[in-house]
Every structure is written in C-alpha cells, then in structure tokens.
C-alpha cells in the first residue's frame, strides 16, 4: 500500500513555520510514514539555521495539478509565489498574504484529492487581518467556511488528555449565548466518531458544565440544566457513553487520570489552559467534520524566536503522525 500523501503548509513565513516544517521533514519517522508535499516558498525554507535542506533541488518543485504517487522519501514543494519583503520575526501584511496563499493552495489540492491529509503550521491572525482579511478568526472557521462544513469542531489530542471545543474563537461574554444543545451534541458525536477511528472501541466522554460547579442546581445559572444536560441525554440515547454536565474543575483531573477518554468543553480557555499545561510540546489540533483530514500544531507563530534555530518541531511531528493515523 502506498504511503499517504500529506500536504504541509508553512504557515506565516515570518514566524517559526519554515523552521519547524524543515526540521519535521528531516525526521526519519515522518519520512517513513508519508509522502510529504510542502505548500510554501523555497527561499523561506532554506534558512541558515538548518543543516539540511529538506527540499532537494528544483526537480522536486511541483505545480497544480500534480500526480499523487511518488516513491522514496523525497520531499516535494508546491511553490507558491510570494511578492514583497518578508522579514523573519516581524508580522506584516505580506506575511499574512503568504500564509493565506499557502493555505488556499493546500485546500484546493485536498479538494482535488491530490493529498490525503492537510497539516498546517501556525499563522498570525493579526498579520492576516493586516492583509485585508478582517473576518479571519482562525484555521478552523476558515476551513469550515470554504468547504461548506455545517457540523464541525476543534479537537486537541495528546496521549494523556483529549478535548473538543463547543465554541472556538469567541469573546467570553458571547459564550453563554452561543452554546446550544445542538452544538454540544454535535461536538460529542464528532468526538466519538474520531476516537473510534483512533482505536477507542467505546469512548468515554465527559461533558463540562458552562458555569462553576456545573451551575450547582441552578444556584449559578440554569444553562447547565437547560442546555448541557439535554444534549448529553440525547447522546446517550444514541449509544454514546457521555457523562455530564460535570464541573470543569474536577472533570479535567478525572480525564487526566484516565477516567474519561475525552472532555467536551464549552469554550476556548476552559479547554486549552489545562491542555497546554500538560501537552504543549506534543499537542495536536484536529478539525473534525471536514471532507478531508486536517491537523495542526497547538501553538502559535512565536515571532520572538523566529529565525534563531531554537523552535521545537515536536507538535508538528505529532500532527503529521496523527494525520496519517486518521486517513489510513
């Protein structure tokens, strides 16, 4: 069986994306698992801090459409033309435009079935807004929009803890009015399906409450009784092993100890504060509900260390490994 073709975007070329992509592609484990296709610009990948250039020669530079099959461990580059000056460590409109150009090219390749999975390096939302895309709030929402996905969710995966978000990039003041039973049920269902693909026979899913102490019998709001509990009940009626609402301050500890396989959290920082505390270097962001597999690192562009050769590629390597598992 041929190895899956994995498309990897460079992300914002002014950030650590070029460095971690290059380092990951020199990883023997990555080379053994997949046929990588990088969506980026060669001049940003050939950084002076790296000993080995993963893209070896102009013969490996491709354009659309391209053939899926490619033997060996050669890394191919889908060269995307970038205009203007981009300086490492400095966000700019040009770097934001480049990041979106890489992403759009990779999405088109996935929709043409030229790649089996998409793995993304980090982008800067502020740089993308500087480039004129003021509505961009993140990879997840953008991918759902351009693919027409109606039911989607953001899951973060590590060996010790897995979490799925009901809402993503929202101001905290908008969370309570944005959480619905339908969205919670969708997150539970998508998570259950994803975990089964990853080898969990009967996933145990803990659903966090919205309010402190899961509302404590309506003492701190009625949203948990009115919104969360009905979604959990419907999930259980569908045969999903879901429990909740459970107070978030105890649920994450229980999940970390192995009592749950995944936590469904109501909002961004409820999930990612504990997750990044224990799995920052190895965590993987997965977009559930898309017509193709998409994973990503769980960290940002880190402009402050860009170009210094000290960025860790661990999260990207794990993202590539998980993408291969999900598409095979």
Automatic annotation (TrEMBL):
UniProt entry keywords in alphabetical sequence: Metal-binding, NAD, Oxidoreductase
Short name of one Pfam family: PdxA
UniProt-recorded Gene Ontology molecular function terms: 4-hydroxythreonine-4-phosphate dehydrogenase activity; metal ion binding; NAD binding
InterPro entries: PdxA_fam
Enzyme class: oxidoreductase
E.C. designation(s): 1.1.1.262
Name recorded for this polypeptide: 4-hydroxythreonine-4-phosphate dehydrogenase PdxA
Source organism (scientific name): Candidatus Abyssobacteria bacterium SURF_17
